[in-house]
C-alpha cells in the first residue's frame, strides 16, 4: 500500500539545542539576504576540484535562489512548493511538492542552512561546536544511520552571517561553500528579484 | 374410540419418541456450536452468487481481498507534527499493552537498506520517461547537463555510489519516480503524510495492525474494537485537537456483526413478545404458550444444526433472517390450538387426524417456497432457505407429534378468540356486485400506476450497510493516501512470469495516453519495480551505449571536465521477481503479484483516480487489445449477476404459481383459484405500492414474492377447507398466523441491511394483503 520515501532522510525536526540557540542569537535574521558564493567541490575519483561562482538570494517568504555564473550559467530555485533547476533558460530538473512531499522539508533545510537557523536540526543531527565573541562554528553529525549513509558531517561557521559551509558526503564527495558580500538592504525584494522567483 | 384412532395414537407416540432422540441430538450439537465452534460470515458479498462464468476472476478477487482482510490502517493527524507524533505514540502504547495477537507496524527502522536493494541492478532499471529522455536527447546535451549538475549544490535525488557509476543519476531518478507513487514518507522513523488545504496544513502518521489469527473470526474482530477505542481515547487525551481515522475490513466486519446481533435481538425478542401476548389473549391457558414456544425453539435449534452441518459456516444474515422464522414457525402451533379450542381433550386425536392433510399441505406450500430459494445459485439464499425450511419442518413435526401428548387439559374459547373468529362474517363477498367493481377499479389503478413507476436497480452497492462514519473515514483515508481503487483492476495472466511482465508492459503503454488526457491519474504495477527480463536487457543496452559507450556521456563529460574517468559499467544478473518479493522494499505492492495462478502466473494492475462510469468503459475497452489481460469490475459484475437472477427468479416464481395451482386443484378442484388469486393480487399490489413509494425493484423484492406465495396460499387453504362464513376456527388460525408473520417481517423491514429491509417490507405488504383479500374470495 505504501511506497517508500526517499528524501525524507532530510527531514526536519524542531528540538532546540542550547548551542544552536546561542548561534542563532549571533546571526541577523533578515527578511532578505543577498550575497556571493564560491563553491569548491571535490568529487571522489576526480583529480581536480570543481569550482563554481555565482550569487544567491534568500527571501524568507519566497525561498532560495542559487545562481551559478561560472563556469556554466545555471539557476536553482527552491520555493515553498518546488525545486527547479534551469540551464540556459531550459528546465533540467523539476520536483514539485505535490509529487514529492519531501520538497518542503528539503527547502526548509536549505533555508535554515543558508540562514544559519540550525536550531531546528537537533533531533536529526548531533550538534557540537564553539562560540567565541562574534564568531561561531558548528559541526553537525547525523544521528540516524540512514542519514549517515548519505552525509558524514556538515560544518558551518560564521559571525552575524554564515560564512562557510562544508558538506562531507559519505560517497567521499566534499563540497566547500564560501559565502561573502552579504547584504540585507533593501529589506524587501526588488521587482526584478521578485520576477526571478516566479 | 375407534381402532384407527388408537393405532394413530400409538404411531404418534412412537414418532414422538424418535423425534425426542433427534431433538436431543440437535440440542447437543447446538451446545457444541455455541461454545465457540460456530463459524460466522459477515461479508455481504459472501451471500452473492459466484460469477459462474469465470472462476478466474473469482480467484483473483479472493486473493486480492484476502491480503487486506486482516489489516487495519490507522491514520492520526494534527495541525503540527509534534502533536500528531505525541498522539500516535499514545495510541501505539495502548495497542502494545493490549493482550490481542496483533502485528503492529509503527516505527520504521533503517530505510536505506530498502534503497540499496536496487543498487546492483542499477543499469537495468529505467522508467519509460527515462528511456524516452535517453533516446531523444543527444549525447552532447546529456553530457553537458551532467557536468552542469555537478557544479550545482547537491539538491535533488540522492546519489548512490560514485559519480562515474551513474553520471546521469538514473538510479536516483528512477527511485524518485517509484517514490512518487505514494504520498507516504518516513519522518522521525514513522510513516508520515502531509496534506495542505485552504484550512491549513495537517500532518498525519500511519500505523498498521494485522490480526494474527489464522482463522477468520468475528470474535477476534469484535475484540479489536474496544482496544482501538481505548487507544483513540488515549490519543485524544494527549492531544484533544487531533483526528483519528481507522479503516479496514475487520472494522466493517465487526460493525456488521454488532448490527446483526442487535437485529437478531430486536426481531427475535419482538416476535416472541408478540406471540406470547397473542397466545395469552387468544388461548388464555399457559400450556399453549409453552408448547408454541417449544416448537419454535426446536425449529431454531434444528435450523442452526442442519445449516452448520451442511454449509460448515453460517452467514450473519441467515441468523438475522432466521430470527423472523420465529413468526412463521408459530403458524402451526397456533393453528393446532385454534382447532383444539373449545373441544374436550379426548377429541384431540380425531381432530388432529382430520386436520393433518390440510396442515401438511400448508406446510408443503411454504416449504416449496423456501426450497425454490435453495435452488438459486446464491450461497446466502441457499442457507436462508435451508435454515427456514428445516426450522419450519422441525416446528411442524413438534406440533404434530408432541402437542397431542402434552396437551391434556381443557381449552375454552376466550373472548378474544371468539371475537377474532366471528370477524370473518363481516368480510364482504366478491361477486357480481358494486363493491367488486369498485375493488377492481382501485386495484387496477394501483397496479397500473405502480407498473408505470417501477424501476429496477441491481447495483450491488445498494446492499452496503456499513455505518456512515466508517465509510466517511474510508473515503478520507483513500483521498489522503491516494489509494488505487480496489473494485476495478486489470488481471494479467501468462504462461510464465516473463510473459506476465511483458504483457503488463504492453498494457502500461496503452494506459499512458489515458493518464495524459486525465482519464486516470495513474497506475500501480509490479513491472514498474521489476521490469521484464526483455525490458531489462534493452535498458542495459541503452545505458551501455548512451552512458558508457566510447562516445558516451561519461567519456564526453570526462573530457569536458579534464578528467580521465574509467567507465565502471558492469553487466549484472537481471532483477528477478523472487528476489524482489523476498526484500522488504516490495511490501507495499506484494499483494498485486498473484504468483502461480491456474496453469500459469498472474498479476494485477491497480488504477488511481477512477471515478466516472465513462472512464470504466474506456478502461474496459483496452483489455481485449493485449494478450492475457482482463478487465475486472467487481461491482459491475456482481450487479449484472444480480440483475440476471432478478429476471430468472421472476420466471421461477411464475413456475411455482403453476405448481402450487396444480397442488391446490388436486385437493380443491375448480375452487382452487380462490386460494391462489388473493395471493397473486397481494404480491402484485405489494410491488406496485413499493414502486409508488419510490423503492427500486431489486432481487430481494422478487425473492420475497416466493415466500408470500408459500404463506399466503396457506390462508387460502385453511379458509377454503372450511369456507363457512360462520366457522370461527379457520379464520382465527389464519389471523393469528398472519399477525405473527407480519410482526416478524415488519421487524425485519426495520433492518439496517438494505437487502433484509427490502425483503421485510415486501413481505409485510404482501402478507398483509393476502390476509385481507383471502376471505373475500371464498365462495
From TrEMBL, chain B:
<feature type="transmembrane region" description="Helical">
    <location>
        <begin position="648"/>
        <end position="668"/>
    </location>
</feature>
<protein>
    <submittedName>
        <fullName>Transporter</fullName>
    </submittedName>
</protein>
<keyword id="KW-0812">Transmembrane</keyword>
<keyword id="KW-1133">Transmembrane helix</keyword>
<feature type="transmembrane region" description="Helical">
    <location>
        <begin position="384"/>
        <end position="406"/>
    </location>
</feature>
<keyword id="KW-0472">Membrane</keyword>
<feature type="transmembrane region" description="Helical">
    <location>
        <begin position="290"/>
        <end position="311"/>
    </location>
</feature>
<dbReference type="InterPro" id="IPR050545">
    <property type="entry name" value="Mycobact_MmpL"/>
</dbReference>
<feature type="transmembrane region" description="Helical">
    <location>
        <begin position="731"/>
        <end position="750"/>
    </location>
</feature>
<feature type="transmembrane region" description="Helical">
    <location>
        <begin position="756"/>
        <end position="778"/>
    </location>
</feature>
<feature type="transmembrane region" description="Helical">
    <location>
        <begin position="358"/>
        <end position="378"/>
    </location>
</feature>
<feature type="transmembrane region" description="Helical">
    <location>
        <begin position="317"/>
        <end position="337"/>
    </location>
</feature>
<feature type="transmembrane region" description="Helical">
    <location>
        <begin position="699"/>
        <end position="719"/>
    </location>
</feature>
<feature type="transmembrane region" description="Helical">
    <location>
        <begin position="675"/>
        <end position="693"/>
    </location>
</feature>
<feature type="transmembrane region" description="Helical">
    <location>
        <begin position="12"/>
        <end position="34"/>
    </location>
</feature>
<dbReference type="GO" id="GO:0005886">
    <property type="term" value="C:plasma membrane"/>
</dbReference>
<feature type="transmembrane region" description="Helical">
    <location>
        <begin position="264"/>
        <end position="283"/>
    </location>
</feature>
<feature type="transmembrane region" description="Helical">
    <location>
        <begin position="435"/>
        <end position="454"/>
    </location>
</feature>
